[in-house]
Amino acid sequence: MRFLLDTNILIPLEDSNIPLPPGLANFVRLAQEHGHTLVFHPASEEDINQDRDVERRRRTQERLAQYTRLDGIIDCPWNTQETNRNDACDNKILFALANDAAHYLVTEDRVIHRKAVNLSIGDRVFGIQAAEDFLRRLYEPTTVHLPNIKDVPLHSLSHLLGGDFFDSLREDYDFDAWFKRNASNGRRAWVYWIEPGKLGAICIYARKENDDITGRGDVLPGASFKLCTFKVGEGCRGRKVGELFLKAAFKYATENRLENIYIHGNSGKQEILFELLRDFGFSEYGRYEDDVVYVKPHPTAAPDGQSSGLAAFEYFRKYFPHYRHDGAVRKFIVPIRPVYHRILFSDYVSPVAPQLHLFDSTFTAGNAIKQAYLCHSQLAQIRPGDVVLFYRSFDAKAVTSLGIVEQYETLNDADEIADRVRRRTVYSMDEIKEMAHKPTKVMLFRLVKHFTNPPSFAWIEENQILKGNIQTIREIDDNAYQKLISHAS
């Protein structure tokens, strides 16, 4: 794979006087050790030539030779005579990425990240931490863990309020006064600790009743759930922390029968967050002063699927955790070995063991919602929105978990497979390469739930759900599915 390095990545790499950002050295090491190509755009060379620090400019220019310079560059049609130099450089780099001059761009420039989202290539632009995590998941999977999310009273964080983690929030309003007021009122937050005492991410939340969410009389009727402050620090981006906050929000709203989830956000700073929200069914509702308001409907009862006018997966995206399982949707039992089950579904606890409640203070969110599964099944008919029931083979021999298919395709190129599963993978690059010797089914899916009463293989046979061993993906009819779900729940 080819990684295009932005100027703000190249300069610290080549200047020993600038401390390397955390993760950058390890990203470069992993890329070089495993045969990936680090490239730079001629526009970055032009950018470096503008550096007024003559000695640093000379050092950087000399050392650029160890990286590959992109050639055959097409003129960027997005630039005009009115485009300033910095924007023109950004546009040239993004245009090259959009035209597949590289697989990914690595940059710490938040403006470029926002532009990439608007160009629908945001998922191909990494910050340093996300780029390192991507390669670690491929080559050092045993060392990559999903983060622990803790539910804490807001007042327990008061001693950290003066720290630089909250500086970006203070830029927009009197955050300190707001924090103290809500801490005194007993508000709570989900947090991720990078290390003891060092905050990496926070989501402050609140239950609301009949709230005017725009300040202009646009009231969400009944009980709603507000994500008041949502910040993932630079040091833990790419680790699915934001997705885990949303997972916690969905579960909280479900257990407390809250009909809507909403958030206010800064349109100039939080486009990456907005992209995440849209991917999970939020839509822009309006504005509150200078902020954009995003709302996700979260009905307590599932809307009728067939009359909704939505395809099965889009229905699921909009109304998660509700999903379509009517007769128009196909259902499959998918075998998964214990080693992958433990990684994909690390928050699954067998019913014979004590079940942790999600919002106990000891809660750790074991896995994200968006997952990937690879196999050599001959089955080709799986579609987005279909229901997949995961059967843990060998030890448990039971159907433990339910997911909804997002994408399903056959690939035989290891790099292409890695590209598809890059932010979800539990497979090492060696495993992907081994599987790619044969046509490989790549299933991207979203986890809905684990079962409290997992149907065992013996029960499945006894109730004629399937006959014979479950060694590959197998389809079941609607009657068998309804019987299995009734037993599992």
Number of strands: 18
CATH topology of the largest domain: Archaeosine Trna-guanine Transglycosylase, Chain: A, domain 4
Into which percent range does the helicity of residues fall?
25-40%
How many structurally independent domains?
3
Q: What portion of residues belong to β-strands?
A: 25-35%
Largest sheet: 7 strands, mixed
Structural class: alpha/beta
Largest beta sheet: strand ordering = 6-7-8-9-10-12-11
CATH 4th-level superfamily of the largest domain: Hypothetical protein
Written overview of the protein:
By secondary structure, the chain is an alpha/beta fold. It has three domains: 2-142, Rossmann fold; 149-297, Aminopeptidase; 331-488, Archaeosine Trna-guanine Transglycosylase, Chain: A, domain 4. The chain is 32% helix and 25% strand. The protein has 17 helices and 18 strands. The strands form three sheets. Strands 6-7-8-9-10-12-11 form a seven-stranded mixed β-sheet, covered by helices on one side. It has a six-stranded mixed β-sheet with strand order 14-17-16-15-13-18. Helix 2 crosses helix 7 (128-139) and helix 14 (414-420) packs across helix 15 (429-435). Mean pLDDT is 88; it is low at 142-146 and 353-366.
Question: Short description, anyone?
Answer:
The protein is α/β, with parallel strands linked by helices and 489 residues long. Helices cover 32% and strands 25% of the residues.
Can you tag this structure with a few keywords?
single chain; 489 residues; alpha/beta; Rossmann fold; Archaeosine Trna-guanine Transglycosylase, Chain: A, domain 4; seven-stranded mixed beta sheet; 18 strands
